[in-house]
Amino acid sequence: MTRRSTSLLVLAAGFLLVLWLAADVLLAVFAGILVAVFLRGSGDWIAARLHVKKSVGLAIFSVLLVVAIAGFVAIAGAALADQVQQLIDSLPSAISSAKNYLDDHSWVQRGVDAFNPSSLAPSTEGTASIFSSSLGALGNAVVIAFVGLYGAIAPSTYVNGFVALFAPSLRATAKDILLQSGVALRGWLRAQFVSMAVVGVLTGLGLWLLGMPLAAILGVLAAALTFIPNIGPVLAAVPAVLIGLSEGVSTALWVVGLYLAVQTIESYLITPRVQQESVSLPPALTISAQLLFGVLFGILGLALATPLAAVALRIGQMFYVERYLDEEKEPGGAATSGR
User: Fold this and answer.
1) Of 130, 131, 148, which is closest to residue 65 (Cα–Cα)?
2) Mean pLDDT across 144-149
3) Cα–Cα distances in angstroms (integers) from residue 158 to residues 153, 162, 163, 238, 266, in the given order
4) Is the CA virtual torsion 167, 172, 177, 178 positive or negative?
5) CA dist list (Å): 239 to 32, 298, 316
6) Beta strands in the chain (DSSP E)
7) CA dist., res. 131 & res. 25, Å (int)
């Protein structure tokens, strides 16, 4: 067996072993890589604009980010926390109103009974979850933050260390794969942040114009859940519709119409424009990846399914399709050019 084959076999075996024993660790590392890409990309952007070193740009962005978060918490944190508590307190009565509506409209109840979402979701008992009992959510968040910070400070250290695990003949390709993965993640993050901002602002403003209570926190929730394409907006709409139903059926219908309008704007106007230079994922592939990772790895698997799919699609297209399949020779000796 050649050194080339041995390096690939050892790495594949190590990856599969970690995936089997501690898939949550791999997800935490990938989440940290996302944070690192965000910090490094933003720092590099500032460095290019100010004509300073990349490390200085990273430091400036990190300070600005901390100041912005602290300022947001100081100015709006208390109000949002109060609205979160109001949302939690109001959901039981909203659910009760929805139940009463269903009791009064038997045809709707029959439709709900016919569609049982729990029957479609495989049991996740025994599967890995990022929020493991040993570390907890807070511990994992700290780990992700530190992985992201150290990765942003010295990315070349980790890239070169990983590439060194491959045989010399494979190192150039391995490094290229990592670089292209970073390009895919930067493009996806840029598109997601723009979409999140647009959805949050439009949803919050629309709910406020409808006279809905808790419009601010529902807008923030809509923005945050836009991080999970396709499925996230549906989850964000549930509490808003329930609260709207407690105000009246007509209000709930207006809320549904608002969320559909915002998602239409985001899906057909905003996202296509910001994704022109990044990986554009087919909706069916995105939903399939979300369902698979959600069932296998829980809520963080669901949240990270789309960026993972973006990386896999870019790598598969560039290195498997273009550099491997498209190089197949025809009987006459010429490449098939994409066949």
Assistant:
1) 148
2) 89
3) 10, 6, 8, 42, 36
4) positive
5) 30, 21, 38
6) none
7) 10
Domains of the chain, by residue range, sit at 3-109+127-327
Cα R_g (the chain), whole angstroms: 23
Q: Which residue has the tokens 């529902």?
A: 218
Q: How far apart are CA 169 and CA 148, in angstroms?
A: 29
Question: Identity (one letter) of the amino acid at 339?
Answer: R
The percent of residues in the chain predicted with pLDDT above 90, rounded, is 18
Listing DSSP states for 111-166 in one string gives HHHH--HHHHSPP-TTS--SS-TTTHHHHHHHHHHHHHHHHHH-HHHHHHHHHTTS
Q: How far apart are CA 255 and CA 260, in angstroms?
A: 9
| DSSP conformational letter for 329 | B
Token pair recorded at residue 315: 């790598």
3-state helix, strand, coil in the chain (%, to 5): 80, 0, 15
Is 306:188 a contact under the CB 8 Å cutoff?
yes
The tokens describing 195, both together, are 């979409």
Residue 112 has pLDDT above 50, yes or no: no
- Among the ranges given (41-50, 149-158, 188-197), the one the predictor scored with the smallest mean pLDDT: 188-197
Please say whether the beta carbons of 53 and 47 come within 8 A: yes
CA distances from residue 298 to 123, 192, 291 in whole angstroms, order as listed: 11, 21, 10
Mean per-residue pLDDT for 113-131?
42
**Whether the Cβ atoms of residue 327 and residue 335 lie closer than 8 Å to each other:** yes
Q: Indicate if the pLDDT at residue 307 is higher than 80.
A: yes
- Which residues fall within 8 angstroms of residue 192, CB to CB, at 6 or more apart? 226, 227, 229
CA distances, 38 to each of 35, 167, 333 (Å)? 5, 30, 45
Tell me the DSSP string of 189-208. Answer: HHHHHHHHHHHHHHHHHHHH
Torsional sign, CA 28, 32, 37, 39: positive
